[in-house]
């Protein structure tokens, strides 16, 4: 019997999971012309609450997966917004029972991309499309326009593209969504987004710490500095909200709120995934790694307590010229930020190669210009760099960024040196500077490491003046022998 357009099958999109992110995304979808949204939550009270609080949205509530599927027109399209992990698998199982070949299941959570690859493969067997979509922008972004990074098949993108375009943030007239690549590509790119987010947040936090401790300025005064920085190349959402956070006064004590927040940073894991994946891919993402480790270090109260009386610099530290110091910190932050992005994009390139994804780097920079947490003016420059030279081997070598670092590097070096002398941790600044100096070095002490490896394990080495693989008889007459086998 041909499908009859029934009253029930009136929704073109559904949302499963109605916690804040899911509810906001459902409301965003419903507010765009042409969308009718079916909603389902494991406990019906939440569904009921959303529907009654937002009659304007015209939601179609479902009490069961069967009802939910019946409410959707074909191909049925549902976005899952539940906490990443086992819950996601359970919902996929339920939807797979009531969906049909050609329908589309979208996971909008922060799933690990390898889980998404696994899920896509399993769901594809049933003929249903599975799309892992990274969604960034927090609660506010979900409601008013997030940046969306979908993976999955080109077939699913046909249906999904217009729907996602209708709810995404807009940057310079363009919706912040693109089909990133197949299977786990979208979640992979969202993971890198989060890694960069971690790095950017630490850089800003260290800048705040250095200025506060170097100049004695209050959080509210530093907020004004960040507000001024937000009119420079650093213009970004994270700089903007930092000023807001620093201005906030604690209602209970009247102190700056930042001074009464416990200094132990939490993490849900996406930053760590970025670093774990980078290790597997062999990509140095030192700026991001330092940001993950800095959170871990902060959250070790026992070790911090035990180390609290370890000696630091003997001289106390004061800044002679606060304005010059503040400008140095700004430039150090800018240069380190370029490194964090450059490393993040290196990981995208390596991931794309490893998993055979055709990821357009310039497009990724474009969809990060609005809606997401790392949204920044700066992303236009990244997108330009990749459109000027699609084969760019490292972002920091693009003319714009090369010049930016050239203009910032002296300040950067001064800040890292000053912080070290003053005993103030500046991991994101110093590790980024070491990366920069390592990358531009003519010759690295890696030669000595090769010598050591050959000494204790006959691991062999290559020479600068001759092809082949060599091993030295270290204890004998120091003569070299060429080995026929491959190096270890
Ligand atoms: C976003 C954010 C969002 C989030 C993460 C990171 O893009 O909207 O990245 O995904 O804030 O949950 O949180 P943690 O700092 O807790 O790891």
Bound compounds: 6-phosphogluconic acid
Structure class: alpha/beta
Question: In which order are the strands of the major sheet placed?
Answer: 3-2-1-4-5-6-7
Indicate the proportion of strand residues: 5-15%
Topology:
Blueprint: E1 13-16, H1 20-31, E2 37-40, H2 44-53, E3 60-62, H3 65-71, E4 77-80, H4 86-98, E5 104-107, H5 113-124, E6 129-136, H6 138-144, E7 147-150, H7 154-167, E8 170-171, E9 174-175, H8 185-215, H9 219-229, H10 237-247, H11 257-260, H12 270-281, H13 286-298, H14 301-307, H15 322-355, H16 361-367, H17 379-388, H18 399-422, H19 427-440, H20 446-457, E10 469-472, E11 480-483
The protein binds 6-phosphogluconic acid.
Q: How would you explain this protein's 3D organization?
A:
The chain is of the alpha/beta class and 488 residues long. The chain has 20 helices and eleven strands. The chain has helices at 20-31, 44-53, 65-71, 86-98, 113-124, 138-144, 154-167, 185-215, 219-229, 237-247, 257-260, 270-281, 286-298, 301-307, 322-355, 361-367, 379-388, 399-422, 427-440, 446-457, and strands spanning 13-16, 37-40, 60-62, 77-80, 104-107, 129-136, 147-150, 170-171, 174-175, 469-472, 480-483. It has a seven-stranded mixed beta sheet, with helices on both faces. A two-stranded antiparallel ribbon has the order 8-9. The chain has a two-stranded antiparallel sheet with strand order 10-11. Helix 8 (185-215) packs antiparallel against helix 15 and helix 16 runs antiparallel to helix 17 (379-388). The longest helix has 34 residues, at 322-355. The chain is globular and about 80 Å long. 45% of the residues are buried.
